[in-house]
User: Fold these one by one.
Assistant:
Number 1:
Amino acid sequence: MNMARKRNEADGKSRGYRLCLLLAGILLVSAVLLSGCGAPKAAEPDGGAESSSSASETAAVDDGDACVIAADDFSNLQLSDPTVPVYDRYTLSERRAKGLTTVMPDLTPYKEGKVVYLTFDDGPDDKNTPAILDILKENGVHATFYVTGQHAELHPDVLQRIYAEHHAIGNHSYDHDYKKLYTSPDAFLSEMERTDEIIHGILGVRPLILRAPGGVIGHFTKAYEPALKASGYVEHDWNVSSADAAPNHPVAQDFIDNIDGQTDQPVAAHAAIILMHCSEGHEETVKALPEIIRILKAKGYTFGVVTPMTPQPW
Ligand SMILES: [Zn+2]
């Protein structure tokens, strides 16, 4: 009798323990699905296994929703908070293989008051991008990084840090080669897909936003827009340019003046999308950034990150 009771108690304890484990597991999965992407994933066999120490520090101090992961049918993307990045857990080839849609639905843009989107193209590098991330963190603001596949491959740890610190990541082609990119929508999209695969290999998610290198004007024909939509991408150019990539070697004060002047124009009153660069050679952009953020805050802007719901700049 005693032995049997003991065994029953033991079984009961073991069942309780298994139930607790199951509940903890469900809670953990729900937390990941709901709050999204506080830290880079660690489960893929190649790449992305280690988060940098700075990334984990930030994940610990940051709060709020990390990001939103698109539903299988993209039905959860009509959002109203312009500060939360949005990603897809599947690559396009995974969506095709699973029979899931790849087409981005029509979305209503954010109707927020006065939002500025700081965007940094052509990175990540291992010097200017981390310096920019430090400044953004010090100022408590978020930004959008349009990365190339080539740079993501070279600096996966910096890409992980961008992600872990809740900035948005967009696709900016594999190697920024206009001649290859703009021969046809298919050529453009196959480079974007290649870059998605690289980003997905590092983070476990792919961007739903992209920026055409050099902008769409003079590059896109009418055929590009429907092709992008069919592949679940939304493109954003900019309406404020720091001109930090101008050929005459401008300096930090020029970028500050450009942004200060252009954000007073009516086109930027509702949504100012600012073009800057964070790659090699852009030390002057790093130098200008604290003053740029100070001016934008003084003008009453809040800081958003680009998502498929971000209003078009024009
Ligand atoms: Zn670029």
Number 2:
Amino acid sequence: MKRRIRPLFSLLLVIVLAATLSLRVSVRAGTKPVPRVFSKGALPAFNATLLKFASVDAGEARLQQEIEQLVEGNFGNRGRHRSFLSSGKYRFDIRARSARGIPVSLRSPQFYRLWLDFKRHLQDWSQKRRYEPDIMSDMVDIVKDKIDRYNGVAKKGFEGRFKTCAVVGNSGILLNNENGKLIDGHEFVIRLNNARTGSFERHVGSKTSVSFVNSNILHLCARREGCFCHPYGAEVPMIMYICQPVHFLDYTLCNLSHKAPLLVTDPRFDVLCARIVKYYSVKRFLKDTGKGIEEWGSAHDGANFHYSSGIQAVMLALGICDKLSVFGFGKFASAKHHYHTNQKAELRLHDYEAEYDFYHDLVARPEVIPFISGKFKFPPVVIHQ
Ligand SMILES: *[C@@H]1O[C@H](CO)[C@@H](O)[C@H](O)[C@H]1NC(C)=O
Ligand SMILES: *[C@@H]1O[C@H](CO)[C@@H](O)[C@H](O)[C@H]1NC(C)=O
């Protein structure tokens, strides 16, 4: 039965995708890509072909399909969901649907409530997922306000941005300098993916204002007692982006036990980050290989391509900080990949070289960064290497 339906479904999906794409393209063509206002100098030459190509997320159709299945309670036909459901302390007893298509094993009232919340979060998130060029100007409202309120900072109208921020990546280059005190001297310090600071304080500091993670990290934490996920202390807020929609189960569960805020990145912010990173990746690919734009997908595993946690943390900081220092990004042949692990290689689903191009523009000429509204004011950025 399933087998017969699948090709038809895939075909439908292709049709829907094609229709969506042509719609998007015509909408964009009608609105002029990324109008930007510059006080002096010429407009940066954005190549329309490149912008259009970077605007398409090759994984979107699969994502929407996954969301649909999850909302229907259909966890059964994907290997990774099955392993998700049977791992750890919390066994989500949602099996593949019964013969009559109704989700089975919704056993306890507590579980049922969790399940409803999960569906609501997932649907809200999915409905909000779209390109919004002004989203950077909302980051103070969306993120900083929540953290300020939690920290007991009185809200007297517009609080503005943090005066100074440090984003601390996990590159082994951190071990080359003793920047611990310098890092801790910033008003707001963002750390990535729960890299530990213990026994590295001289190099990486010890202050953490926010722990920025991808949802795989929380998924691992969800197996622990009380979703324990706090190498920097349980009072430190966490912000995470969702890599797989099924991770909203972890979110729904863990949000109950976290004392500090557990925030999910705004899906409009995710879309913006995805476009920017794809743009830089394609640009570099064209320059380095001399190949056609249509070959980028196979070179970079288009549907699985994803920005790194690091670049999204930097993007976040751009929105909530007056001044930004970046530490622990980049690599040298002599440096370890991570300061705190022995991992050898970089993950292939990220294009770090392209992300470095972005950081370079961020420092030297932020006006050439596409997709961000011209109204947004970039803070000055310093990269410490
Ligand atoms: C824009 O980029 C595409 C793809 O690399 C290229 O074929 C085209 O010539 C470029 N257009 C302009 C105006 O530079
Ligand atoms: C997560 O928990 C906090 C604190 O209990 C609550 O205020 C917030 O509404 C929850 N988030 C969602 C999306 O339900």
